[in-house]
Amino acid sequence: MVWLGHFLQSHPELAVFLSIGIGYWSGGFSFGAFKLGPVTGSLFAGIGIGQFAEIPVSPIAKSFLFLLFLFGIGYSVCPQFVAALKRDGLKPVALAVVTCVTGLVTAIMVVRFLGLDAGYAAGLVSGSLTESPAMGTATDAINALGVTAAETGLGLFLGGICVTTAPMIVGLCFGRYLLKMNPVLLLGGLAGSMTMTAAMAAVQVRSNSPVAVLGYTPAVPLAHILLTTWGTVIVGVMGR
Q1: Residues 116, 120, 121, 122: what is their CA dihedral angle, to the nearest 10 degrees?
Q2: Can you give the pTM of this predicted structure?
Q3: Percent of the chain residues past pLDDT 90, beyond the cut
């Protein structure tokens, strides 16, 4: 396999297509009710290829592809957000705002309490709130500020638990007692506020009702926008 590693190092673009090809192939296999899918399959394929070949990636290519990824998110969620807002009203949107803001505030409190740097704060937000683009926007902000990113990660275990659960608890109480939302609609809205499609599907299956989608659809596009922005915000706050 050494020859393959040297070959991919000489032609890094082929490593990308190889990862995608293997990912789509492996993602099609099912293990009972579990199926990887092409995205997860490509991720694991890239990890595997990286174990025996150190593939150089141009900083320009990384920036361009990340910006293209952000464009794709914005381009896809904006029409959904406007249509869902007209159809389903403001309650899921208000729930998304409260949940996302709670997540940011909790992350700032945890990071300040633990005395962590801006790089670690960015990893805590993106990992605990399950929003990978936040890590990219935070990295750009870290580079601009010149602060260290040496400790960037998903966060301490307990800190991650706080940042993950606090928004859901606050959102649950806010939606149930202040907005008086239907329980299934509320759970769908919470799943959208945390950008967790799998959670919405689980609610839909357990409730045997499509109502969860009505809460999920207006919340998830706004949550994507806010949580992606939080990467830059928390680095700005912690980098001072």
Answers
A1: 160
A2: 0.61
A3: 7
